[in-house]
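Reminder to self: tokens first, then the designed residues, so the page reads top to bottom the way the pipeline ran.
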């Protein structure tokens, strides 16, 4: 069952959250993102430099190593984004898309528009970061063997 989107459709807070038009809109955006990421990943594998000759001086080698590292990091970033996009599409299929994985509350439409693959609301994401920092801070302060320099480090 596919929902036709009117030309120029944009989800609105005035509509019922995750109504068929919104779901179709985000499915389309995520499918387009997935296709773009797959193309980028394929292109990065084709453009990997061949250094079988390794001719040149140390500067040439360092430059080639730096370029290779950049390509690897970019490929890893694209693979991570592709996995997030695939998970978001799976959430659309199982009916949980648009709802926070931690709280179950609807994720703000502005956040979904900016990051369609997100699975956390702004408050849950912020609480997760603050909570992990708080646990580290509490563990350090609770450990009486910690020195002053390790607490401030």
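Designed residues (153 positions):
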């Amino acid at each position: 069952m596919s929902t036709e989107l009117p030309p120029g459709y944009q989800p609105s807070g005035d509509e019922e959250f995750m109504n068929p038009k919104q779901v179709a809109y985000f499915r389309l955006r995520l499918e387009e993102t997935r296709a773009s990421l797959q193309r980028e990943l394929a292109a990065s594998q084709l453009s990997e430099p061949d250094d079988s000759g390794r001719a040149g001086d140390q500067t040439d080698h360092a430059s080639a190593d730096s370029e290779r590292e950049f390509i690897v990091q970019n490929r890893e970033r694209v693979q991570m984004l592709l996995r997030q996009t695939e998970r978001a599409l799976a959430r659309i299929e199982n009916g949980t898309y648009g709802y926070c994985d931690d709280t179950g509350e609807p994720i703000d439409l502005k956040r979904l528009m900016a990051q369609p693959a997100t699975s956390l609301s702004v408050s849950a994401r912020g609480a997760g970061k603050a909570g992990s920092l708080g646990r580290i801070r509490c563990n350090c302060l609770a450990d009486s063997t910690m020195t002053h320099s390790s607490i401030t480090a």
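The chain has five helices and no strands.
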